[in-house]
Amino acid sequence: MKKLIIANWKMNPQTEQEARELLSPLEHRMGLSNNVEVVVCPPFVFLPKLSQSVHKLKLGAQNMNFEEKGADTGEISATELKSFGVEFVILGHSERRIYEHETDQEVNQKILMALKHKITPVVCLGGGKDVNKDDMGKFVTKQFHAVTKRLDQKQLEKIIFVYEPAWAISTMEKSQPATGEHARELVLRIRTLLAHQLGEKQAKHVRILYGGTVNQNNVAQFAKYPEIDGALVGAASLDPENFWEVIKEFAREAIHV
Ligand code: PGA
Questions:
Q1: pTM (2 d.p.)
Q2: CA distance 6 to 231
Q3: Cβ-based neighbours of 90, under 8 Å, separated by 6 or more
């Protein structure tokens, strides 16, 4: 299985020109590594332009609505995203849960809608306000069951999961880095939850990434664990050199898997 690195640009950059400048060196370099798949999730407004210049990279969105279409000011639908070549969508990111009060039920509905439109949901687990580090196992288990409600086995297999502890995101208040060992432990916990639903063999084919801060300085401590299938990268994905080091490190480790 290829490693997967997802760039979450969040509400950056500020102009289309800058967005193209961020994407283009990455697209050029991508051919160098076949061990890694890279998805870029820009703000919605840059999707039309960027969709014209991605060939080796893939495009993702940072959110979408759970309804098919209709009256919901400021929202975006799966069909609209599809029309610009979006293949992935990040759902349940901790910033959406904490700042926009997104609930497990909404994330569950969004997963179903994304799957219906053949967009791969990238489902974050671990986001929530004031969750203690020692309680992450219990917290992630509860979120897993809530967001995967009503999903059958075939649907579950199509999801990419991310262990994304809110307290380990660089821009969160009182942010503190997670260790590779902690990330591995929680990724394994998610794999066990999947195994209960899918059986061990099938659960191994589902990709589970780490989504707290990953950058060129700490990537080695996450990439070294074969159980971690890749990373969801925020701040470092806005710096092409830094992001490229993250990709290279996972590519290097993928050779040994
Ligand atoms: P960061 O963000 O890499 O800036 O810490 C990670 C995330 O939001 O998942």
A1: 0.97
A2: 6
A3: 6, 8, 41, 60, 61, 62, 63, 122, 124, 232
Q: Which residue has its alpha carbon closest to ligand 1 atom 2? A: 234
* Backbone phi and psi for residue 77, each to the nearest 5 degrees, phi listed first: -100, 165
How far, CA to CA in Å, does 223 sit from each of 9, 17, 174, 217, 230?
Answer: 21, 32, 25, 12, 7
Give tens-digit pLDDT for 162-187.
999 989 988 888 788 899 999 999 99
Neighbours of 201 (CB within 10 A): 8
Q: Is 90 in the pocket of ligand 1 (CB under 6 A)?
A: no
Report, as ranges of residue numbers, the positions in the chain whose pLDDT lies below 50: none
Residue bearing tokens 């400048």: 21
**Is the C-beta atom of 232 inside 6 A of ligand 1?**
yes
User: Token match 């991310």: residue?
Assistant: 162
Decide: residue 238, CB within 10 A, 0-12 exposed, 13-18 middle, 19+ buried: middle
Looking at 93, 95, 106, 253, which residue is catalytic? Answer: 93
What 3-state class would DSSP assign to 81? helix
182 is a catalytic site residue: no
The enclosing H or E element of 86 equals strand 86-91
Q: Are 16 and 46 in contact (CB under 8 A)?
A: yes
Give, in order, the Cα–Cα distances in Å from 103 to each of 1, 7, 182. 31, 23, 25
Is residue 93 annotated as a catalytic residue, yes or no? yes
